[in-house]
Amino acid sequence: MRTRLPGLIAAVMLAALGAIAPAAQAALSDIDGDTCVSGGGTVEYESTKGSWICVDGKHNGKPID
User: Fold this and answer.
1) 44, 53 Cβ separation under 8 angstroms
2) Cα–Cα distance between 21 and 19 in angstroms, integer?
3) What is the helix, strand, coil percentage profile of the chain, to 5?
4) d(CA 10, CA 49)
5) Mean pLDDT over all residues of the chain?
6) pLDDT tens, position by position, 19-38
7) What is the CA radius of gyration of the chain?
8) Rounded Cα distance, 60 and 65, in Å
9) pLDDT digits (tens, 9 = 90+) for 10-19
10) Of 52, 56, 47, which Cα lies nearest the Cα of 65?
């Protein structure tokens, strides 16, 4: 019984973290160019990172999908 309880607790904790991870990732998801522009920003290429980002507006600094 002593070895089963920590294993059960660990399994429940991992399952909870597994359920939370996709929701957290969705909350931080990239936006598209139209969303950036409609939020008052501009789509610009960031050459140091090799990616597109939204500059200014509601989505300032977010990567473009």
Assistant:
1) yes
2) 6
3) 45, 20, 35
4) 38
5) 79
6) 665 555 555 567 899 999 99
7) 20
8) 14
9) 777 766 666 6
10) 52
Is residue 56 over pLDDT 90?
Answer: yes
| Vertex 23 angle, CA 57 and 35, to 5° | 25
Amino acid occupying residue 11: A
- Write down the residue that tokens 């598209």 correspond to: 32
State both tokens at 36.
Answer: 């950036």
Determine the Cα–Cα distance for residues 32 and 52; give it in Å rounded to an integer. 10
Consecutive H or E run containing 18? helix 4-27
- Find out whether 62 and 54 touch, Cβ atoms under 8 Å: yes
In contact, 59 and 35? CB cutoff 8 Å: yes
